[in-house]
Design a protein that fits this description.
single chain, alpha+beta, Sufe protein. Chain: A, four-stranded mixed sheet, 4 helices, 4 strands, about 40% helix, iron ion binding, iron-sulfur cluster binding, NIF_FeS_clus_asmbl_NifU_N, SUF system NifU family Fe-S cluster assembly protein
């Protein structure tokens, strides 16, 4: 019974981020803009970052897609705002491990509500949805000061 309550809590957090996304919108000043889409399911994310002195000062997203995709974007923006680029890259790596079903104990708290997406590992087709915003973030940090429009390529692991 406790497990079903926990699953219900996870669903509620995901639905709340979908219905009331955090950091959705457009930045007045962006140092990096990334648009990625997942052609296999139609999810699209536009991510804007304001990075100063290697710190993510602000982040906003827009786009459309399934509830997992949009909730993940909301959770991600909340988790990385104020972090250094290095901390954000470490958080991305932790999240990608989490949704692949790996046991992540180090840095798990840095994920914030995104920890709730661990169950996505049970549904391989949904991993692509959950990771789209995180892959956009990674590209935005690596290719700072650029505007990127691209499709995200996923391998069928």
């Amino acid at each position: 019974m406790a497990l079903s309550r926990l699953d219900n809590l996870y669903r509620q957090v995901i639905l709340d981020h979908t219905a009331h996304p955090k950091n959705k919108g457009v930045l007045d000043v962006a140092t990096s803009q990334i648009e990625l889409n997942n052609p296999t399911c139609g999810d699209v994310i536009q991510l804007q970052l304001q990075i100063e002195d290697q710190v993510i000062k602000d982040v906003r997203f827009d786009g459309h897609g399934c509830s997992i995709s949009m909730a993940s974007a909301s959770m991600m923006t909340d988790a990385i705002k104020g972090k250094t680029e290095k901390e954000a890259i470490e958080t991305i790596a932790t999240f990608l491990e989490l949704v692949q079903g790996e046991d992540v104990k180090e840095n798990k708290k840095a994920l914030g509500d995104a920890q709730m997406l661990a169950g996505v590992a049970k549904f391989p087709a949904r991993i692509k949805c959950a990771t789209l915003a995180w892959k956009a973030l990674e590209r935005g940090i690596i290719e700072e000061n650029e505007t990127i429009v691209d499709e995200v390529k996923h391998t069928d692991d």
